[in-house]
Amino acid sequence: MDSKITETAFATASATASAEAIADGIKDHIQRGGYAPGQRLIEIDLAEQFAVGRGRIREAFKTLVGEGYLEFIKNRGVYVRRFSRAEILDMGRVREVLEGLSARLAAEKELSPEERDLLVAHQDRLNEAEAHNDVDRYNTENFQYHATICTIAGNSHVEQSLARVRLPLYRLQLPRSFSNDSMASSNRDHQVITSSILAGKPDAAEAAMRAHVRAGNQHVIRLAEVHFR
């Protein structure tokens, strides 16, 4: 287990040891790549990690199974959920609509100076990651960028729905073998989306975001079967 990931994902949870905090810690660990799809989570190990009883861990497991992060396999245990390619592509079609709506809503708003600065800062970090061919940093910033647009949009229903359909993509970002051109193409989409939101152009922002997500779906189609269940 990566100690850096453990520290960032589990520090807050360990301080309170509530089932909700534990679930958030495990979820964050999955999102950061600390647990791989299909990996079994050992109840007693996590109980020691969080210094709680196993019943508290079972509560967290129940929550995460309900949210789609984990799956329970009878007589085998609890595993980080794996998705089929078809499932991910179906989610991708839904995500295209929701991400597009999120970008539209953000562009329709009169952004505060803080919101504008935050969006520009995200784009600057994406540009820097691309310039250094830093795929891991680009992937991390990519999720934060999309989450920020959703937060700016300010629609809780869209935000909650997107959290579920983004889930399997945490482990399906640009692989390290992808070329600079692939990252550059993805970031060009981001630059158009960012400029459209900042300029208050809802139609352009939605169209650019939907095209960007469609391109991501094509990435899923090209991935090797080993990534899926």
UniProtKB/TrEMBL annotation:
Any Pfam family matching the protein: FCD
Keywords noted in UniProt: DNA-binding, Transcription, Transcription regulation
Listed InterPro entries: GntR_C, TF_FadR/GntR_C, Tscrpt_reg_HTH_GntR, WH-like_DNA-bd_sf, WH_DNA-bd_sf
ATP-binding listed as a keyword: no
Gene3D superfamilies to which the protein is assigned, alphabetical: GntR ligand-binding domain-like, Winged helix-like DNA-binding domain superfamily/Winged helix DNA-binding domain
Residue intervals of the HTH gntR-type domain: 16-83
PROSITE patterns on file: HTH_GNTR (PS50949)
Transcription recorded as keyword: yes
Cross-referenced PANTHER family: TRANSCRIPTIONAL REGULATOR, GNTR FAMILY (PTHR43537), UXU OPERON TRANSCRIPTIONAL REGULATOR (PTHR43537:SF5)
Name of protein: GntR family transcriptional regulator
Native source species: Halodurantibacterium flavum
